[in-house]
Write a sequence for this structure.
C-alpha cells in the first residue's frame, strides 16, 4: 500500500527507491552524497596516509550499512530514542504509517517549508572541490 501512495506522490522517487541497492551505493559513492544529502566521506586536510585510510574506512562503513535491513535500522533508532514498544512492534513486523500521514497540517507545512529552505541553501552553496 505504501508503494501505491508513494507512486502517486512522487513516481520518479518511488522507482529510484525500488532500484538495486548496489546501484544506489555506487551512485552515492561516486557523488559522495548520502541518502539525505550528507557527505559520505568527509573532506580532511591532506595529511598523507591517515586521510586516505580514514576515507577508505568511511567508504567501507557506508558499504557495510547497505546490508543492514530497514527493520534493523528502525529498531535501532527506536531503541536509541527509548521507544521500546515501537521497537518491539517493528520486530514483529507491525509497521507504522508513513511519517507524512502522521503529521498534523501545521507540522506538514513546517516540514515542507524546512525542506524548501534546505533545497534553496543547497542550490546557493557552491560545491566543495
Amino acid at each position: 500500500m505504501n508503494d501505491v501512495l508513494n507512486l502517486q506522490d512522487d513516481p520518479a522517487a518511488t522507482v529510484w527507491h525500488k532500484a538495486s541497492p548496489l546501484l544506489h551505493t555506487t551512485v552515492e559513492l561516486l557523488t559522495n552524497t548520502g541518502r539525505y544529502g550528507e557527505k559520505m566521506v568527509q573532506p580532511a586536510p591532506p595529511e598523507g596516509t591517515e586521510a586516505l585510510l580514514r576515507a577508505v574506512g568511511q567508504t567501507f562503513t557506508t558499504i557495510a550499512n547497505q546490508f543492514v535491513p530497514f527493520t534493523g535500522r528502525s529498531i535501532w533508532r527506536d531503541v536509541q530514542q527509548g521507544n521500546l514498544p515501537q521497537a518491539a512492534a517493528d520486530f514483529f513486523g507491525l509497521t507504522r504509517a508513513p511519517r507524512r500521514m502522521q503529521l498534523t497540517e501545521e507540522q506538514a507545512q513546517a516540514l515542507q517549508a524546512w525542506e524548501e529552505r534546505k533545497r534553496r541553501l543547497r542550490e546557493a552553496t557552491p560545491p566543495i572541490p
User: Anything to note?
Assistant: Helices lie at 2-9, 11-18, 21-31, 49-65, 70-80, 84-91, 99-102, 105-124. Residues 42 and 55 are 7 Å apart (CA to CA). The longest helix spans residues 105-124. The radius of gyration is 18 Å.
